[in-house]
Design a protein that fits this description.
Blueprint: H1 16-30, E1 40-42, H2 44-57, H3 60-70, H4 76-88, E2 95-103, H5 109-119, E3 122-125, H6 129-139, E4 156-167, E5 180-181, E6 188-189, E7 191-201, E8 204-210, E9 216-222, H7 228-232, H8 237-243, E10 250-257, E11 259-266, H9 268-273, E12 279-280, E13 290-303, E14 306-317, E15 328-331, E16 336-341, E17 350-354
Parallel strand pairs: 2-3, 10-15
Antiparallel strand pairs: 1-17, 2-4, 4-14, 5-6, 7-8, 7-10, 8-9, 9-16, 11-13, 12-13, 13-14, 16-17
Length: 361
């Protein structure tokens, strides 16, 4: 298990941002979200919401284990309150959120009522794979076309779909499209330019590219030859908290690559490293221990128009079988880390690593 990077003397209710960022840091490390090769994307907010839903759905001993892995003093009431903070803190103009809980029995009446009331999730029996795929496609606006797990052999499936649509601030003004080389000597890629202020957290430069509704995409780029993914992988909650806040005064021309990719990963390793139960029991399933699964499928596209991103997290158990002032130019021409953040929101909506940007059909 990873040693927490932030020691909390407060309760989760009094310090939600710190506890949530600490949880994100540990999950990101365990899931290797900042690799030296390949691209990754994950939604810390969506992962945490499904973790809380999972705690609600399982029985007593497993529930306490999940909650204590989030915070030693976490109660189910704390978890429910924080879930509501995450869900209600989203901007409905840019973000869609849908939840579902499916089980072989459709859930007991008490469980159904509690999940519908506390999490706004639809509750029902395990759907066909085609129905699950249609649910994913519908609730991510076509960005995720296939549900990330096969559902027909599962006993319980908890799902949360988060879709984001951001247009750059001042989006009516055309941005300069600039092809450039990413990683010296490699192929030329499309990109776009914008004027932005430059900040820093240690030896990592921080750029906030604003969207119309107040969110921003944070681009993290190591100074000189510092490996950005390797350095950010060592960050704790304090560094992430600083990076999420706009900072810096000097304006620069930032040339950013366009990119689009899909990413899917099992978060079970992170689940186990956090000390969470591998076998759980669910009410209404005759106390039959079930294998836990925890999977995320995600998508992102960033170009001169804005950003589209989606995350679908599924957890559960069981297996049945030019002019103006002079400015420096900064070219994002090497691997970088990015995040989509919202002012006052305790977690990034999305975080990811880009080692090889590409736009695919």
């Amino acid at each position: 298990m990873f040693i927490p990077l932030l020691v909390l003397a407060s309760t989760p209710a009094s310090a939600p941002a710190e506890f949530a960022l600490n949880d994100m840091v540990e999950n990101a490390r365990a899931a290797n979200l900042f690799p030296a090769e390949g691209n990754t994307i994950s939604s810390p907010a969506n992962v945490l919401m499904v973790t809380i839903m999972m705690a609600q759905a399982v029985d007593g001993g497993s529930r306490a284990q999940i909650l204590q892995s989030l915070h030693p003093q976490m109660t189910m009431a704390d978890g429910q309150a924080f879930f509501q903070q995450l869900a209600k803190g989203l901007d409905p103009e840019t973000t869609r959120l849908a939840r579902a809980v499916w089980s072989v029995s459709g859930g007991t009446p008490a469980a159904r009522q509690g999940i519908e009331k506390n999490y706004g999730a639809e509750v029902g029996k395990i759907p066909t794979q085609e129905e699950a795929n249609a649910w994913a496609n519908r609730n991510t606006a076509g960005m995720i076309k296939h549900f990330p797990v096969q559902v027909l052999d599962k006993k319980v499936v908890l799902a949360s779909a988060l879709a984001y649509f951001g247009k750059w601030k001042g989006g009516d003004k055309p941005k300069i499209t600039v092809p450039f080389q990413f990683r010296s000597g490699r192929r030329e890629i499309p990109g776009f330019s914008t004027i932005i202020t430059e900040g820093a957290v240690g030896d990592v430069l921080v750029y906030h590219l604003p969207y119309e509704n107040g969110e921003s995409m944070v681009v993290l780029l190591g100074r000189n030859n510092v490996s950005t993914p390797a350095r950010v992988a060592r960050w704790g909650a304090a560094e992430w908290g600083a990076a999420m806040r706009p900072r810096g005064n000097e304006e620069v021309f930032l040339h950013t690559p366009s990119f689009q990719f899909q990413y899917q990963t099992s978060l079970l390793g992170a689940w186990q490293d956090r000390g969470r139960p591998v076998y759980v029991t669910f009410p209404g399933l005759h106390e039959d221990p079930s294998n836990v699964f925890f999977v995320e499928g995600a998508f992102v596209r960033v170009d001169e128009k804005g950003t589209k991103a989606a995350s679908l997290v599924a957890g559960g158990g069981g297996s049945i079988g030019g002019g103006g002032p002079r400015r420096r130019t900064v070219v994002v021409d090497r691997p970088f880390v990015f995040a989509i953040v919202r002012p006052g929101y305790p977690l990034p909506l999305f975080i990811g690593t880009v080692n090889e940007p590409a736009i695919t059909p």
